[in-house]
Amino acid sequence: MRLLGWRNRILGSARFQRHAAENPLLRPIARRRAGALFDLVAGFTYSQVLLCTVESGCVQRLGEGPADADELARLAGLSPDATLRLLRAAAAIGIVEHVAGDWWMLGRHGAALHGNAGALAMIRHHTLLYADLADPLALLRADRARPTALSHFWSYAGRAAEADPQRAGAYSQLMSASQAPVAQEVLAAYDLSRHASLLDVGGGQGTFLEAVGAAHPALRLGLFDLPEVTARLEAGRVAVHPGSFFEDALPRGYDCISLVRILHDHDDGPALEILRNIRAALEPGGTLLIAEPMADTPGAEAMGDAYFGFYLWAMGQGRPRTAKEIRSMLRDAGFVRSRRIAARQPIITSLMVAVA
Ligand SMILES: C[S@@+](CC[C@H](N)C(=O)[O-])C[C@H]1O[C@@H](n2cnc3c(N)ncnc32)[C@H](O)[C@@H]1O
Fold first, then answer.
1. Long-range residue pairs from 233-240, CB within 8 A, at least 24 positions apart, any chain
2. Closest C-alpha to ligand 1, atom 16
């Protein structure tokens, strides 16, 4: 602690900052640190620029090829001045690129985003999060006791959770749109062919199981979710089990159960209840596969505690957990062993395998 205090006094001193800026060896580091700090200060503005490029249709249009500023202005319903302000801002953060004259193309980030339906859906969805974060200190002070835009959207969240097919449809669609990269990560990291059957708990619209089924045609598949969600599913290869993991026993007879982006949605008590329910449904030796973004993930720390920490607080329940915290809960739920397995893109998901 004393060492950190000393470091912070040095970094905060105007004399040291002047010295770092003047010293040719320290200057590149000083510039990088100043840039990173500026990005923290300005991050909300960058996100709003990004939102404008998506909501106006510019990203989608430029995904089809170059366009001139007049066409983009018509599409966005903006004056020439406002369009130019937006395009230059978007170019500065890598969403678009100025090519020549009045012509624009996608930039590096824009090109990656254009084909990513899940990211585009999340950018639009974030308008709810930003509404809840308009006064972030008030949100913290409310201690999750007040309804929020996000608790309304996730109808199973918050104190007055009640069945609402329309809201369940909206969140299920968002989850389905952002599921493909998660399924890819899971399939690349864990070989499901060692199992005969898989039950996806909180499986939503079945998008994860669709990807699993395509990769493992012999696997018997089941999906468990709230009745208002499973009512939207069509009959097919997947056995559908409506119910609540807080009120109903999970179906038995599956040798593997998956929990994809579920556990972090729940506070510790309810999360432990879900794990105990799963443990009771598995025979000894059965497997639980947990896939979700985790806190304290090396290289993706901000995604865990800063993004998901605040997102889930605004939603009214849940928290991102470290792998160590999840392993400790698994032990408490009666699993005999667990291990984290490496994912290629931990910013999308981390993975944990537990044995009953
Ligand atoms: C964040 S979504 C994740 C959906 C899906 N696993 C995915 O990754 O796309 C959480 C899911 O848990 C389901 N869920 C919430 N509370 C539940 C409960 N008490 N019992 C069963 N499912 C529940 C929701 O309906 C929703 O489909």
1. 233/205, 233/206, 237/213, 238/206, 238/209, 238/213
2. 156
Candidates 174, 179, 225: which one to mutate for ligand 1, based on the most atoms within 8 Å of Cβ?
A: 225
Question: For 202, which DSSP code?
Answer: T
- Tell me, using a 6 A CB cutoff, whether residue 254 lines ligand 1: no
Q: Which DSSP letter does residue 193 get?
A: G
How far, in Å, is the centroid of ligand 1 from the Cα of 138?
Answer: 28
Q: From edge to edge, which strands make up the β-sheet containing 337-341?
A: 239-242, 220-225, 197-201, 256-260, 287-292, 350-355, 337-341
Which atom of ligand 1 approaches the CA of 178 most closely?
9
Does residue 226's CB lie within 6 angstroms of at least one atom of ligand 1? yes
Two structure tokens written together for 336: 């005999």
Is the Cβ atom of 202 under 6 angstroms away from ligand 1? Answer: yes
CA atoms within 13 A on the CB side of 275: 28
Task: Assess whether the C-beta atom of 308 lies below 6 angstroms from ligand 1.
Answer: no
118-162 pLDDT per residue, tens:
999 999 999 999 999 999 999 999 999 999 999 999 999 865 557
Minimal-distance CA residue to ligand 1 atom 24: 202
Residue-wise pLDDT tens digits, 267-321: 999 999 999 999 999 999 999 999 999 999 998 999 999 999 999 999 999 999 9
Query: pLDDT by residue (tens digit) across 52-103?
Result: 999 999 999 999 999 999 999 999 999 999 999 999 999 999 999 999 999 9
Asked whether the beta carbons of 250 and 257 are under 8 A apart, the reply is yes
